[in-house]
Amino acid sequence: MDKVILTNFGVLSTKYGPGGFAAINAALERLVAADKARGLDSVVIGLDDAAKMGSLKVPAVTNAQSGRQAKEAIDAIYKALTPDYIMILGSSDVVPHQSLANPVFDGANDPDRMVPSDLPYACDAPYGGDAAKYTGPTRVVGRLPDITGGNVADYLVGLIDTAVGWTSRPRSEYASYLGISAAVWEDSTALSLQNVFGNASDLQIVPTAGPKWEAALLARRAHFVNCHGALSNPHYYGQQGRMFPIAHDAAYVAASQLAEGTVIAAECCYGAELYNPVLADNQQMGMCNTYLAKKAYAFLGSSTIAYGPASGNGSADYLCQFFLNQVLAGASVGRATLMARQEFVRRSGMVDPVDLKTLAQFSLMGDPSIQPVVLDTQHQSLGNGDAGKSLRAIRRRRLSMEGTELGKNTPVAKKSKAKGKGGSASSALKKLIQASALDSTTVLSFNFKRPGGAAKVKAAISAPKAQSVHVVLGKRDGADNDHVPRGVALVVWEEDGKLISYRELHQR
Questions:
Q1: CATH number of 173-379
Q2: In sequence order, which residues have a C-beta less than 8 Å from that of residue 382 and are 6 or more positions away?
């Protein structure tokens, strides 16, 4: 089986009624037929369909909001069918995100107790709430979301029909970009654009640019946004000093013309949150849902507060860059997401707490099998068998092996129960906090441990000396502005009881 489309029939029927459910099923039939014409064998499976699940010897989901049941069912389906693509159909009220504990939660500076995530669906590790278990992704997964709390099927039917009619385009169609940055992060965003597109000459800085972008800018098929986001909010925000002007407006995007096939990576806090529109101003659906409604092919974004530096690159910058680079190289958006996750873990080497949250919070919204850019391959078919399927199978095996090795061997930060040398009481850490001018600080301390909860990493495994890390969370210049997170995290590395380096990250 090449592709499985997983949903919950009972929830869709309840949300949309018999007529809406029938329209969704008809659209799914069109998608299966279109996939077949593209050489993909696809099947639609209701996780609550007892008969179908029984035929696969998989327990059916009986509680639609049970993360455990959803994870265990999808794991079992993957084991039974080993699909190249897993497409989750529906928002989090149809098939739930997995709830992972936020490793840098402190209740005040980072209030995200849990991180809604699709990362566990991409991993072989069993159900659980510890993000550290999921540093070895092996599967290609994406979600095509309807509207959380929605009751009109037309939106989801439209998204499915976009997946029916997608087409690959030359890389030149994605060479120009809409790049938007908060003024305070101009240097960081410019570096990201340089790393992806080879230039930052068209970077839009807020203030004073935006949010009513010219049609020519919005029509560019590659979008990169490094701005503030906020909970249940249809806007992204710029920043200069204490000014937080709107940088990107979902209502304006909805009323504008996007080019079909747009791919966007958004670093913003809550940038891809699938909230119920009744919670937002003017009941406007979020940026992610809006882009997909305008026939975007893929949206990579965060479900919670994200982090990145003001200058240089790190955390959210890297994950978004890695994703776009793989898309531009001709990968499907699902494979691009898997490869970005693996590269992110590989580059981290030892995954600190903020990077662990970053890995968990970014998910792909869109049909994972869509390939926006034509793949330039060196292989020529000899006419014996399906060369495309064979090459894809080779790629999947390689990615599965690489993900498995990362999951087994990458040290991950685990919260320390006891303060070690150089902990929060050390004079060096206190001096650093004072010099950083942070208010209302919280200090969290971590040791590095091997996957599976083994003992602290030894020098022979991956570190020349005993290492640990501390995360200092705080704010500058008072509280958040209009619900826009603006906290700061200092990620401080300790080696043999001495503080050796730190990096400063800002909530996006």
A1: 3.40.50.1460
A2: none
